[in-house]
Amino acid sequence: MQTITRKRKLRSFQPLWTTTRKVQIAAQQRIPANIVDVLIVGAGIGGALMALSLAKQNLTILVVDRRQPVQGSTLASTAMIQHEIDVPLHRLTAMVGQAKARRAWQRSARAVETLTSLVDNLGICCHLERKKSLYLAGNTYGARALKAEAAARDKAGISAVFLNATQLRENFGLERTAAIEAAISASANPAQLTAGLWRKAQAEGVAIVEDTEITDIRSLHDWNAAATSKGEIIQARHVVFCTGYEFLDAVANQEHRIVSTWALATKPHHPRPNWLKDYVVWEGSDPYLYIRSTADGRIIVGGEDEEDPTAHQDSVKLSSKSRTLRAKLSALLKIPIAEPAYQWAAAFGVAADGLPIIGPVPALKNVYAVMGYGGNGITYSQIAAEIVSSAILGHQDPDSELFAFR
Question: Does the global pTM surpass 0.70?
Fold first, then answer.
């Protein structure tokens, strides 16, 4: 079958969230209307935030997905909702300039605050917990780099406290040369979060159609005609591709590439340092480790990324990566890590500068795409919803050029 997005196996094996209750969304099998104001392609966290940002605007909104809602990359997320971008602020400054780098980091911090407030205000039950973050010195960014990073963040008005080796050992019992402690992070159950957002969007009249793929799209004057895998034609004034790591072919290039990552979750009530319940942790290494815990006392650890878009499908590699993650986590926390209850792997997309790619698709009118999320999928989904919804409603987001196709 022809397709205009790059079809991928987005996740492998069994993520923790696949057993979450109450994440099924009642979706339709056929499109309810052939003419809509906005067609959103993708029913994951990105599509949900996009749809909700356009709800209550007197627009007809249709969402289609080749899978069932919430069943793509969203289930593979470790749901560390961070304002910290994969590329440190002082490093990003050297790449794009001080003004742009600061704005990107500041926008990311605001997005986390906006998202956590949104979830609270909507009353979505998804175990959302506000957290601090701990960024540890590693083999890529050592103590000197972290000291420069903390200073850069402080000058940009972003919370950052530099901890030397002694302070880190005394406060956290961790043996690293330095760390940065920061606020403005969170964690959640991504399946419950996404399902909750979709239910709110449906209550506002947003229609969701599952098992339907967009196979072609043509811009005709002020409209776009989208063909589906079921032989239907949808006329839409605006089309937004929230397909995550299944890139739109028209804009796929080497600036954003697909890599593989691995993760595991322990059983509930696993021994853990008391401080870990209040923090998300990651490190300045390549590949870097990232750690969080859940409300029921599981430890989630991920990392060991590889520059291979299909390596996550390898069951032998899953076992070896899991052993490596457990060994690294045990060495860091100085506690034995039991056999995991869940192990999984996934593909994700990254850009060289660590920033997402959000904006109009070249050569198509009123068609937008969002891609290159890196390790900040949920945070960047919120930014994308803000930027694209503003464009659709006729406003220019002041930061849109920071994330435009490049």
Answer: yes
**Which tokens hold the place of 42?**
């993708």
Tokens of 259: 């890599």
Long-range contacts of 284-288 (CB under 8 A, 24+ apart): 284/88, 284/135, 284/136, 284/137, 284/138, 284/139, 284/140, 284/141, 284/142, 284/145, 284/146, 285/138, 285/139, 285/140, 285/141, 286/138, 286/139, 286/140, 288/138, 288/140
* Cα–Cα distance measured from residue 329 to residue 376, given in angstroms and rounded to the nearest whole number: 21
Partners of 179 in beta bridges? 136, 163
Return the structure tokens found at 364: 């198509």
pLDDT digits (tens, 9 = 90+) for 199-246: 999 999 999 999 999 999 998 888 999 999 899 999 999 999 998 655
The structure tokens listed for 250 are 């028209």
Q: What are the structural domains, with CATH classification, of the chain?
A: 11-76+191-254+354-402 (3.50.50.60), 130-184+255-351 (3.30.9.10)
DSSP, collapsed to helix, strand or coil, labels residue 199 as helix
